[in-house]
Amino acid sequence: METLLIAVGSFVGFIVAYHTYGKWLATKIFGLDPQAKVPSAELEDGVDYVPTKKEVIFGHHFTSIAGTGPIVGPAIAVFWGWLPALIWVVLGSIFIGAVHDFGALVVSLRNRGQTVGEVAGRLISPRARLLFLLILFAALTVVLAIFGLVIAVIFAKYPEAVLSVWIEIPVAVLIGYYVYKKGGKLLVPSLVALAVLYLCIYIGVYHLPIAPFGENAVVIWTCILMIYCFIASILPVWTLLQPRDYINSHQLILALALLVMGLLFASVTGKADILESAPAVAENLPAGAPPIWPFLFITIACGAISGFHCLVSSGTSSKQLESESDAQYVGYGAMLLEGALAVIVILACCAGVGMGVESDGNMLTGIDAWHTKYDANGSWSGFGLPQKVAAFVDGGANFINMLGIPLELAIGIVAVLVASFAATTLDTATRLQRYVVQEIGTTIRISQLKNKFCATGLAVVLGGAMAMVPGPKGPGSGGLLLWPLFGATNQLLAGLAFMVIVFYLWRRNKPIWFAAIPMAIMLIMPAWALIWQLFNSENGWLATGNESPNYLLGSIGIGTLCLQIWMIIEGLLILPRSRGVLEEMLPPLESSQALGEQSEFYSTT
User: Fold this and answer.
1) Which residues on adjacent β-strands are paired with residue 358?
2) Which ranges constitute the DSSP H helices of 507-598?
């Protein structure tokens, strides 16, 4: 029952937080106004600025921010014990992550949908804009690499997931055309799409697992995914991005519902016992493992707080909200749902794994099963990303199996869940990186970078190249090397996004403590982790005693730290003289924007 109590207590906490703390932010701090003009109406172009129903944009926003961050991060972090991970996820989501996402969304909404980086140039200084863009560029390159790698790992390890994930693309294109161009209704095609996607999981498990690439599967799948990202990111959002995320959200919500129901049944019957399956706080750690302080705060880089979310909030969602009053629902609410997902992952990787896993032909349960995934007697360098993903897939499948669904089909459902979450984030991240590259090109006056094809090509080539960082098994096996870099750059980005939110409020004589405290945490912890990762004596990327230094990751780490320090200096220089002084206003629109066609996807009624 302890497993069930943890789940219920966490979920109730999230609901209460939404209706109390979230409402306080919406009414007392940001003062959301349903009558205020929003970018989707002012600048509607049918491509990026598209008024969208809040239910649709919530699905797109949630699937974009969730990705596999709240899956892989907690799946790694529970090796320190499930209790620290749980505390950080619940408290971090409510008081840090949701505030960050909500604040970034509101600031962008009130600046014509500009990205946080663009807004920083007016709130702080013009130099801050370029610094922020460079940090965004580094962070998004790592995001593309790590999420592409996760999907490739899933396809290689679970070939039954391939068909269902790829079939989403033609289904989404058909729905986008039907709804946007033909003015069709969403309900029926959504239900048909959901049935098709789950039918494809069944076919993939029992009849058509796709595993064509042998030992080089991860490398080849990564290359294919980057080609897909190039194509998807240059299409209008209604063509693929929005409809895919919308139908994907239904598929994912159904999978999450199965996980929750399975968790409930397994807990009530006593088969999922977290106290018997995993340590609350681990006493013995693998050799070479990083310390819990500060690495817990960057390992769970999503599920508690993620800097990438500010890019989704300000890069896509702010351009599509049809009312300012929807910002709490999308910004604060979606982050709490991601926190709930991270709680489920923690329970699956502990109580779920403890229900039973096969090892060397033997079925192990309890703590013995958990040690097959998190062996304290092993070496940290021997761990790999596939093992951590497998912990959630196996544990989650055990939950779903309690509902009478065959275990092999349950494994397929959870594998598709992981890959689909990562795919939506990969789509969005590529589009956002294109925006960032184009903004950098405009700032430094390189015309080629302003071209969307060149900008997108640069984004996917660099992301794919970073995904090939060699690990214990050669190129494509360095997932656990990339994850700390992803976590640190991602969380530093969150700290800098908080800085923009703080300056927005500071200039308007609003309270800032609720954002300033998280800002300090998110600037200190990732910087501390990066310095440790760079120079710790055992295996630091640039440590003098390291026989195989990693100059690529080390250079990115040092560069990110330098940019962060410079950004902080820019903020400190302007802070004393900016209290109550509004930033320079945006220039007036030269002409009214032509209104695109309306449909149920984008109707403002």
Assistant:
1) 363
2) 513-535, 551-574
The pLDDT assigned to 402 comes to 96
- pLDDT value of position 594: 41
- pLDDT-derived band at 378 (thresholds 50, 70, 90) equals low
For residues 163 and 232, give the distance between their C-alpha atoms in angstroms, rounded to a whole number: 18
Alpha-carbon distance of 384 to 96, in angstroms, equals: 29
C-alpha to C-alpha distance for 382 and 422, rounded to whole angstroms? 24
pLDDT digits (tens, 9 = 90+) for 402-443: 999 999 999 999 999 888 888 888 888 898 899 889 888 988
> Is residue 363 within a helix (H) or strand (E), and if so which, with residue range?
strand 362-364
pTM recorded for the entire structure: 0.89
What DSSP element (H or E) covers 479?
helix 479-506
- Reading the block at residue 294, the tokens are 């500060």
- Please answer whether residues 111 and 583 qualify as being in contact, where contact means their C-beta atoms are separated by less than 8 angstroms: no
CA distances from 590 to 43, 142, 584, 586, 600 (A): 11, 38, 18, 12, 29
> Do 476 and 163 contact (CB within 8 A), yes or no?
no
- Residue 253 CA to its chain's centroid (Å): 16
Angle made by CA atoms 154, 225, 227, in degrees to the nearest 5:
170
Residue type, 226: M
How many angstroms separate the CA atoms of 462 and 476, rounded?
14
Q: Among all chains, which residue has been given the structure tokens 């351009």?
A: 319
Q: Residue 456 carries which side chain, given as an amino acid letter?
A: T
Alpha-carbon distances of 601 from 210, 249, 297, 589, 597, rounded to whole Å? 33, 15, 37, 26, 11
Residue 605 is predicted with a pLDDT of 27
Q: Give the pLDDT band (50/70/90) at residue 603.
A: very low
Strand-strand pairing, 357-359 and 362-364: antiparallel
Contact 303, 74 (CB under 8 A): yes
Q: Please give the structure tokens belonging to residue 525.
A: 């912890």
What span, in angstroms and rounded, lies between the C-alpha atoms of 271 and 62? 31
**String of DSSP letters for 191-226:** HHHHHHHHHHHHHHHHT-----SGGGHHHHHHHHHH
Class level of CATH domain 2-543+557-577: mainly alpha
* Cross-strand pairs, 362: 359
DSSP string for 499-525: HHHHHHHHTTT---HHHHHHHHHHHHH
486 close to 466: Cβ distance less than 8 angstroms: no
Calculate helix-pair angle for 385-401, 69-77, nearest 10 degrees: 100
Question: Who's near 491: CB < 8 A, 6+ residues apart?
Answer: 297, 298, 301, 305, 306, 307, 522, 525, 526
Helix ranges (H only) for 331-469 are 333-347, 353-354, 366-373, 385-401, 407-444, 447-450, 452-467
Residue 464's Cα: distance from chain center in Å?
18
Q: Give the mean pLDDT of 292-310.
A: 92
Evaluate whether 575 touches 506 at the Cβ level (below 8 Å): yes
The mean-pLDDT minimum among 129-138, 154-163, 207-216, 554-563 falls in 207-216
- For residue 358, the 8-state DSSP code is E
What sign does the dihedral 21-256-342-432 (CA atoms) show?
A: negative
* Band of residue 377 on the pLDDT scale cut at 50, 70, 90: low
In 3-state terms, what secondary structure has residue 362?
strand
Q: What is the pLDDT of residues 492-515, one digit of tens each?
A: 999 999 999 999 999 999 999 999
Q: Which residues contact 195 (CB under 8 A, 6 or more apart)?
A: none
Over residues 550-570, the mean pLDDT reads 90
pLDDT score, position 540: 82
